[in-house]
Amino acid sequence: MAYLCKPKSKSIHFKEGGMNKGYSKEDHYPGETTQALARRYKEILGLLGEDNEREGLQDTPERVAKAMQFLTQGYGQDPEAILKSAMFREDYKQMVIVKDIEIYSLCEHHMLPFFGKAHVAYIPNGHIVGLSKIPRVVDVFARRLQVQERLTTQIKECIQNVLHPLGVAVVIEAQHLCMSMRGVQKQNSVTTTSDFTGGFLNNPQTRMEFLRLIGSDLK
Fold first, then answer.
1. 5 in catalytic set
2. What is the CATH number that goes with domain 31-71?
């Protein structure tokens, strides 16, 4: 038996207090960092042969500076704290799956995007976690310079270390622009990575149930 959750939206804003016990998230861009990045992006545009002063590019360095801070905001967030903010005692020992979690990250080799979906499951061992926290943990690790292999393992290890469940399973399917818009230029290739602990690693039947459920379209 498995409890399956398919997130429909990522537009969740957390405020202090209540269930999250002091955890909050808000986007902000430090002025000094933004200005320093903008100066460098303006220089890069010039080195590429662009006219920094033309109308369409006048505000581009600052926009890119803010965008890069947003895309790498995971460096300033603690994924373990996110999980700990919504842990509850519950005697439920069946599979919990959150599937089709959108991911957007930057490849650390070329700083080009890769994007796709993550499927995460765990088998509780005395504690469950608020379902929205699993996509948030995925986002924290994705919003850093990454490789897909490490991203998969970091999500698994975070959930394992905090919840101490009977098993964790993570599968990520993603397309990499460093492969499709440059380099080998294979537009239709998809990379799949997986990592497992506990019952998902040691019990083939449990692992196959997880893989079957993430591949189905349950309503």
1. no
2. 1.10.286.10
